[in-house]
Structures are given as structure tokens and as C-alpha cells.
Amino acid sequence: MNAPDMTPQDASNAEFTDRATDYALNFLTDGDATDVSIKNDISDATLAEEMAELQAAIAAIPYSTPPVPLSSDLKTRLFERIEETPSSQAQSSLFHLLTQSINDLKQKSEGLAWQLLPGMENGAMAIYEIDQDSRSVAFFVRATTAEVFPNHHHAAGEEVLVLAGDFVVDEQVYSPGDRIFSHADTAHQPRTTQGCLLFCVSSLDDKMI
């Protein structure tokens, strides 16, 4: 059985409905939107009422879908991805050293050649490894008592792992196991209130201020 032919009025109404739906979904250009609003056989009141119904229905769509529970290992996978992605501030082959255990790093700090840090009475550093290709260096820093470290400027990103004691950066206190990242082209003067042992990866081009 053939469907009855549409009258011009029916065709006009159907076209309006299609274009009004596109309008409510923001699929139309400004010119198209104007076309919807000037249908000869539809009053402004009817247009406003139908458009409001369409927009209300579309706005309710996101709330009609069932919630998707978060994966139980989402946090773990996120941090694994972060660790696998090189920092845009400083890409160095030495950053992987920061994933070693605290005990392993403490053992590696023993027997290195330590030298005093400028301006500190009880602060010293020991170089662990240098990557000339990326102009980066991995090193240990220690302070046996409360100390203020030299003010310095980062030529590239720096990351510090606290192995023992406390490390204070911008009045934020960090404890063993904490990792602190400083962006390139920044400067700070951290301190310790009781002494500390740190493992750092930074740039060979950092400057004391």
C-alpha cells in the first residue's frame, strides 16, 4: 500500500522539524539558523515552543545513559603512563634512575666522591652519572643539619627524590619517597629543617644565583 502524498504544508512542516533539530544541536551555520526562524507558515510562538521542547530533549540525552564505573586500576595505569612519558621540559636518559628503590639509592650514595656545596657548612653533593647528550646529571645531595641550599636557576626540568629527612620547597615540606619536579627556567632556594639525603636529576647548565 502506497503512502499518501504529502501536502505542501506537510512537507514544509517536516522540513522545519528536520532543520529545527539541526539548529538545536548547533549543526547549522548562522545563515541556516535564520532560515529556520522565518518559515512562512509557522508562527514565532510555535517556533519557540517546539524549539524549547527539542532543546530540552537534547539536553536530557547525557543523563539517560547509564554511568560507567571507573576501572579499579585506573590510578595505577595513569601514573605508569606519566612515568613512561618524557617531560616536555627536560628529556633525559637519566630520569629512569629515579624509579629505583630508596634503599638501593642510599647504598649507591655510599663510597662516592662528595664535595661541599657553595655557601653551606654541612651540605655536600656527589655526582652519580652524567649524560652529555642531554646535558643532564644525576647526583646525590646531603645535609647533616638544618641548612638552606644555594639559590639556583634551572636550565631544564629538575626532579628530586627525597631519600631521608625533610626537604622544603616553597614552604611545602616533602618526606622520604616524595618526588618534586621543577620546570625549566625557574629558580628556587629550598631548605631542610633537620637534614636530608636527596637524589636529583637536573641540567649541567643550571646556574647558582
Description:
- There is one protein chain.
- By secondary structure, the protein is an alpha+beta fold.
- Helices cover 31% and strands 26% of the residues.
- The protein has 5 helices and 13 strands.
- It has helices spanning 8-24, 30-37, 44-64, 74-84, 102-109; strands at 115-116, 123-131, 136-143, 147-148, 152-153, 158-165, 167-169, 172-174, 179-182, 187-188, 191-192, 196-203, 207-208.
- A 6-stranded antiparallel β-sheet has the order 1-2-3-12-6-9. Strands 10-5-13 form a 3-stranded antiparallel β-sheet, with no helix packed on it. A two-stranded antiparallel ribbon has the order 4-11.
- The radius of gyration is 32 Å and the shape is elongated.
- The termini are far apart.
- The model is unreliable at 38-42 and 86-90 (pLDDT under 50).
Question: Can you lay out the helices and strands and say which pair or pack?
Answer:
Blueprint (H helix, E strand, L loop, with lengths): L7 H17 L5 H8 L6 H21 L9 H11 L17 H8 L5 E2 L6 E9 L4 E8 L3 E2 L3 E2 L4 E8 L1 E3 L2 E3 L4 E4 L4 E2 L2 E2 L3 E8 L3 E2 L1
Antiparallel strand pairs: 1-2, 2-3, 3-12, 4-11, 5-10, 5-13, 6-9, 6-12, 7-8
Would you summarize the structure shown here?
With 209 residues, the chain is an alpha+beta fold.
